[in-house]
Amino acid sequence: MSTTSSTFNPGKGNGEPVGIAILGHGTVGSEVLRLLNKYEDDLVHRIGGAFELKGVAVGDLAKVRPGVPKELFTDDAMELINRDDVDIVVEVIGGIDYPHEVVLAALRAGKSVVTANKALVAAHSAELAEAADEAGVDLYFEAAVAAAIPVLGPLRRSLAGDRVLSVKGIVNGTTNFILDAMDSTGASYDDMFAEAQRLGYVEADPSADIDGHDAASKAAILASLAFHTRVTSDDVYCEGISNISATDIKAAQSAGYTIKLLAICERLIDDNGQETVSARVHPTLVPRSHPLASVDKSFNAIFIEAEAAGRLMFYGNGAGGAPTASAVLGDIVGAARNKVHGGRAPGESTYASLPIADFGDVETRYHIDMEVDDRIGVLAETAAVFSDRGISLRTVRQEEGGEDHARLVIVTHKAKESDLAATIESLNNLPAVKAVNSVIRLEGE
Ligand code: HSE
Predict the structure, then answer these.
(1) Are residues 275 and 326 both part of a single domain?
(2) Are both 127 and 165 inside the same structural domain?
(3) Is 236 exposed, middle or buried (0-12, 13-18, 19+ CB in 10 A)?
(4) CA 440, CA 322: separation in Å to the nearest integer?
(5) Residue 66 domain flag
(6) What does the record give as the active site (predicted)?
(7) CATH number at residue 273
(8) Catalytic annotation on 414?
(9) Which residues pair with 299 in a beta bridge?
(10) Distance between CA atoms of 181 and 184, rounded to whole angstroms?
């Protein structure tokens, strides 16, 4: 495998090629290596200078890696990072603690960093951005959100002159696969989760996908860039999909909706004009006519609304080796170009420092499915619980339940999370209510 190009070589100004080190050789790292080699001649022209792969750090040197010269591998990441001829460090290891250590070391050693690690960026953005600023180097992470879909670049650059109002999207392919399969086949959550696992979609720690943590990290990154405010994964309200049943999917279908796990980042403005930022991840009913409803299988899509630009939608592959490597390569070209020609990528901007909204103050609509006694006056008793909290009902549908009970499906107008939570508590204490089966938020109208 050739790792050096001599076709075009102004290098970094001193005639030396831009040195690249890769940390990790898993699904993404091996694809980055393959594509760097495959597109080498083109990349040299796009960078405007030669580059050279200096090494690949791995955990297990004994593992057989066909097609890659053995001498490229090392198990000493720190030594590789600190080499004088390494200018760009590409982190594709995954996890948080060890990548945190090596990425910080790389930035502090004056190396630009390209990472695909959403959990790392969402947890430690402040420290990493500060280290990059102090060293005057680049920190790129396009692949961390929705892999191949270019969404961070547009937020950082193309929309830098606009005012973003909201970013809403499907940013986890595994949960979208499961919900889409439940929607199209009527199958149970457990069966479709097993199918997603069989196909290799689910992360080694399934909770990252199904409990929404992966999407929450991405929401934190999107909200930070959209609202020029530091948002970490701890600021994101997060609910996963494991409680979604085939009955919920069917109820959604009969009302004209589909259920998606959405990451929702919004700029909220209260009655006094105070702006806050809300970032949340939860299963959401989306009208079938909404563009996000047609995002099927394991695809991702992000919907951005900005004051001047209006509505923008980004769609594509949000996971997988090659799609993630595509975004990593784009960042490598950007960082390498800056090494050759000077200048830096647009960095983090958190000047707005908007407060994070209290989740109880967030307003949305709700779809509530419950079992009630089937007798005179129950509808009025139930409706009174909502009106006591100032929640207005949009639709009420009663269906036959069992022998002595009925199924009531209520859709509310916009209401505050805190009021809705109190309403559900009161409903659970109302003798006429046998069970509140599900409460699912509703977006997109
Ligand atoms: N597990 C993630 C997904 C991979 O399903 O989208 C990309 O972060």
Answers:
(1) no
(2) no
(3) buried
(4) 35
(5) yes
(6) 218
(7) 3.30.360.10
(8) no
(9) 317
(10) 5
Q: What is the CATH number of the domain that holds 370?
A: 3.30.70.260
Let me know if residue 160 belongs to a domain.
yes
238 neighbors 128 (Cβ within 8 angstroms): no
Binding residue ranges for NADPH = 118
**Domain count of the chain?**
3
Atom of ligand 1 nearest to the CA of 201: 5
CA–CA distance from 111 to each of 58, 152, 205, 343 (Å)?
A: 19, 21, 31, 14
Whole-angstrom distance, CA of residue 420 vs CA of residue 146: 32
Q: Whose CA is nearest to atom 7 of ligand 1?
A: 319
- Angle made by CA atoms 162, 158, 282, in degrees to the nearest 5: 75
Q: Are 137 and 131 in contact (CB under 8 A)?
A: no
pTM over 0.90: yes
Residues 327 and 297 in one domain: no
Q: Exactly one of 12, 111, 168, 218 is catalytic; which is it?
A: 218
State pLDDT tens for residues 268-291. 999 999 999 999 999 999 999 999
Q: Which atom of ligand 1 is nearest to the CA of 202?
A: 1
Whether residues 162 and 308 share a domain: the answer is yes
Q: Is residue 328 part of a domain?
A: yes
In a domain, 387, yes or no: yes
pLDDT in tens, 4-59: 443 444 567 677 999 999 999 999 999 999 999 999 999 999 999 999 999 999 99
